[in-house]
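Below is one such protein, fold included:
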Amino acid sequence: MIVDWAPANELVVSLKAFVRRGEQKTLEMGGGWAAKLRQQLGPQFASELAAAGEELAGHLPDLLVRLCPRERSAEGYICWLSTLSPGDVFEILAPHLLDEEMPILRTLGAQVQRYAEVLATWNERYFRGIDPAILSGLQADAAAKRELATTMPANALVELATGGIDYAPVQPPREVLLVPHYHYRPWNLNDKYRDLRVFIYPCDALPAAPGDPPRALMRLTAALSDESRLRILRHLAAGQRSFTEIVGLVGLSKSTVHHHLVVLRAAGLTRVHDRDDGSIVYSLRVHSIDDLGTRLKAFLGTE
């Protein structure tokens, strides 16, 4: 188990959060964050980013951060990327990729210089100005998880960090990597490579203001405030269910059920069982129900 983090990780994740407009409504940064930022960045650069889309914000840049041999500050990472030729990118990434990803690698190799330029502008106009406490909080969380990794089994630490992903492969990869992120909360960003499994997990890097309820408590109360989500939890309490089974049991559209499962997972109320064959089933994370009372009492000061 490896727990890693560098400012370059959040640089890449923050760009994803801005580019992937389809998921911005579910991000805790809020769609308003992205809309306001588009105005601040100017229409030309915002349009360039929108046109780039997934080409410049896929998952391979996350692996490049891990493999970067230089200082992995935002500036150090960008500087290293700008020196890479398409051939360099191929040689660095090819040993780690699954066969089906090789065409993607060839495309990325041809675009790496453009990617470095976009990241440089993104860093100058946005990332360099974020609250330094965000980066400090992410660094502290990675250090805490690294300490836990010395005494906790890898699958238990993954489940804790991700808020409920049960990762129990039949043939484990050579390495499992955990990386905290802030901008893409409440989502986990998970990637699978030839010899590496990566879990980029959401982290509340900034503590709640004095007197404000913690984000974890807000997620729990929000998740439990909806009738459909309570019905889903009741079905999961009876046993593991696939997504298709949940849709049939609650009688809602797939998109609506998907949204509810995102909210429940973000609150830590469900466990997502991730299997080697790509199948996913859900179950109730029972101890999180108990967490509600504990967190509420702690906030109210009644412990």
The chain has 14 helices and eight strands.
